[in-house]
Amino acid sequence: MSRRYLMVLLGIVGLGAAAHAFLEPLKRHPDFVIAAVCDSNAVVRDEFAATFGVPGYGCLSDMLADGVCNAVYIGTPTDLHHAQVLEALCAGLHVLVEKPMAITVEESRDMSRKAKENGLALVVGHSHSHDLPIRKMREIILSGRLGAVRMVNTMCYTDWVRRPRRADELKPELGGGITYRQGAHQFDILCSLCHEPVVEVSANVFDWDSERSTIGAHVVRLLFKNGAVGTAIYNGYGNFLSSELTGEVGEWGFVAAKREKPSPLSGASEEEELRKKQIRSKNAIANDAPHQPHFGLTIVSCERGDIRQSPDGLLIYTDGGQEEVLLSRDKSPRDLVLDEFSQAIRQEAVLHDGQWGAAIIEICSAALTSSQTGKPVRIPHC
């Protein structure tokens, strides 16, 4: 039987780098049509609206009132997610929301509960467990071919702190800093690969640049219900880049740019930094990469073998030797996000639903608490 296509009239709310990255996947996906755009910045909004020939709105309420969409993608600052997701769900729209899903566990659970009550799809993405190498790792783990997963280590070194940022992106109380904004990717990867609930979180987070204060690095240890252990190391200060460990392939599957010392931004005004971010957002996340995406380096240790990424797939190490599994580049990670959103709208079970997103936020919150108290945090319901 041929697949029945949906007609999802999608409103894009928040027109930053993440939204730009979805444009090409949206153009080629058979289930989605861009029906409206929404952003408080009139210049950005009008440019998008003119490009796609759709109405532009300055606030979500006006877009919902016009009834031009049956689903929304929300890529606004994290502190707006809770109110905007609830507003869209109450209006009867399916929702795809960027990570991190919310600032607090209570907010994220509230969002998940409302979606379930209203019988609507709520998917959290993009996150890097959508990357095809991570998906293939999960498939191999679940197949049992290498025995039980015992340990997963993921590390990522970038210049995240040195890039232009909105003020909220640097404030943990607004969902900013490395642990929420980048750790959410790492915890998503670890939860996907260890495939059991997290029961304990231990962490140390670091802020070692007084001129650009934020959580810029962390070490987080997750203990899973099945006894597996995951560790996440992230350093966003830009002196060393983990692309040196991945064949010079960067986060989005492109060969990393020539190494340059990160530019200090501590002297820039908030307005100047926002302007630089808006310029960068148009090309920050490209499509049609020549290699597989690498959010740093992830190494899986199972009872009978280890797995890591290669530039174009995976390397599997066993007693029988080394095997490379080459992976297709037909779909980008955001193509796969849209596939999952489409499945959720069809009421099919998906991995990255509201409950999953809430569990990731609980890990982020527990990591900060553990670092503050110096003690592990137990998670009974993650």
UniProtKB/TrEMBL annotation:
Which InterPro entries has this protein been placed in? Gfo/Idh/MocA-like_OxRdtase_N, Gfo/Idh/MocA_Oxidoreductases, GFO_IDH_MocA-like_dom, NAD(P)-bd_dom_sf
Query: What molecular function terms (GO) are annotated for this protein?
Result: nucleotide binding
Q: Where is the Gfo/Idh/MocA-like oxidoreductase N-terminal domain?
A: 10-126
Record SUPFAM superfamilies: Glyceraldehyde-3-phosphate dehydrogenase-like, C-terminal domain, NAD(P)-binding Rossmann-fold domains
Instruction: Using the record's annotation, list all stretches that form the GFO/IDH/MocA-like oxidoreductase domain.
Output: 134-233
Q: PANTHER family from the xrefs?
A: BILIVERDIN REDUCTASE A (PTHR43377)
Name listed for the protein in its UniProt record: Oxidoreductase
Question: Which source organism does the UniProt entry give?
Answer: Thalassospira profundimaris
